Amino acid sequence: MVTQEYSEAAVEVLGILNTLEEKEFNKIPREIIEFLENNKSDTYDPDIDYFADVEDLNLKEKTKEIIAGIYLDYFCPESRKQAYSNIIEKNRNKYEEELKETYNSDNIFKKQNKEEVKTTEMLMVQEEGFLKKVMNKIKGIFKN
Question: Residue 60: what are its φ and ψ, rounded to 5°?
Fold first, then answer.
């Protein structure tokens, strides 16, 4: 079972692939097209002008990833494959580093401790305000 994100990306990818000339479209194995067809969303209707410049397309990140893979495997000239593979590898490593940083247990506990301190400070401020009110009431009683 594929995710909703992937099934929506499949719709966008198929939309892009359907703009190719038949000769180019036939470079893509039928199994890939069938996989995309079988896993596309039945409800997602992207608002994309597939004939616009690539820079102007508002595509999902997953769509870009799938298209990049198809390009690398079936359209990219051999002379450029290594350069593109290196870019993909660098991006993958960067993403993995971001995940490590985000889910680093030390950082999670630091963040949690900061939130606990803020909560404690807020409670102290609230209690202080309450205590002042009570003290003022008591002082008011003794002044009369």
Answer: -70, 150
Structure tokens at 116: 């606990």
User: How high does pLDDT run on average in the chain?
Assistant: 80
When pLDDT is cut at 50, 70 and 90, the band that residue 111 belongs to is low
CA–CA separation, 12 and 36 (whole Å): 10
Identify the residue whose tokens are 């593109």: 84
Whether the predicted pLDDT of 23 surpasses 90: yes
| Radius of gyration over every alpha carbon of the chain, rounded to an integer in angstroms | 28
Tokens at 14, concatenated: 């198929």
Q: How far is CA 79 from the centre of its chain?
A: 31
pTM of this prediction exceeds 0.85: no
Helix (H, G, I), strand (E, B) or coil at 1: coil
Cα-based distances in Å from 134 to 24, 60, 108, 124, 140: 80, 58, 39, 15, 10
**Number of CB atoms found within 10 A of residue 102's CB:** 9
